[in-house]
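Re: beginner question about structure tokens

> Can someone show what the tokenized structure looks like for a real chain? I only ever see the sequence side.

Sure, here's an example I had lying around. Input first:
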Amino acid sequence: MKIYLDTEFIDTGTEVSLISIALVKENNEEYYAVSSEFEEEKASDWVKGNVLSQLEPPSTYKPLSVIREEIVTFIGYQIPEMWAYFATFDWLLVLRLYGGLGKLPYNFPLYCHELCQEIDRIKLPSEDFPERNKQHHALTDARWIKDLHQKTQKFKEIQS
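And the corresponding structure tokens:
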């Protein structure tokens, strides 16, 4: 089972904190949550204008402990193949959510595939990319990552 991951976060240069996380399964099941634990005052002007301005009402935000449990339930018992577009911060935030690599749930992979590297490796032309919404919203982006990954798979089939 493939799961496509995206996060929105605050990066202060010395710390990275989760704002929101989205997971989309290849069968289109979706999980999305906004953390109630990020500190808005630490966000850059860009994050405030492009990410925070698009979030759902604060009454829907969840503690990280709830997000952790919900992700475990969403993933279930299979070992997923995780994909993110540029996985550096996305996977770091998943690792931090669970307390580090050694504390991941038993069926979580130890790494996340990076789609931008795969695109570079196979030389997928940019005109083959699906249209991308200009918003910076984790769920919208996770859906786009899924669509883009499917395009890479079709491109590889044609090339072989």
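Each token stands for a local structural state, so reading them left to right follows the chain. The first helix runs from residue 45 to 50.
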